[in-house]
Structure formats: structure tokens, C-alpha cells
Sequence to fold (91 residues):
Amino acid sequence: MVMPNNYPDQGELVEFEIEEEPKWITVKLKDGSVIQIKMEIVAIMRNGNDMNSGLPIYMVQATNIIRLTKVPKDLMSKKKIEDQKGQTMYR
Fold:
């Protein structure tokens, strides 16, 4: 059974500390853009043991952080778009 926050109700949250700062992965796209990506761990839960090996089972909740570091000028646009509240935004 899964609880509302998407964690199994029989698991146990495990405290953790990051031993090494996550590294940024730099990706150069074919269109000339460069993006950087890194993973940030949000929570870790121990959820029983594997029935075959007896090893603990861990579930990791993580999110990816993406930043754009280079964009070719020909890909930039200043056209107006309207957000869901009817306000104008520029991109």
C-alpha cells in the first residue's frame, strides 16, 4: 500500500548526509546549446529486505536540477506568450 506522499506505508525514512557534493554533468547539444544537469537526493527510505539475498531495499527520491549555460543567439526568441493567468511573459 502506498501513502499519499508516494512512500510505502511500511517503509522507514533513513537520515543521510552527502559525503561529496553532486557533480554537474555538462551536455553539449547538436543545436549548439550547453546544459548542465545534477541530481539532488531528497529522501531515502528503507523498505524491507530482498527475499533472495536478504539485502536491504532502499527507495531514493531525487530530483534533477538543470541549468542552461550557453544558447546560440539564433535560438533565442522574444515573442510574447500568455501564461495561465492571462499575464504576458517574454521568452
Summary: The chain is about 0% helix and 45% strand. The CA atoms of residues 3 and 9 lie 6 Å apart.
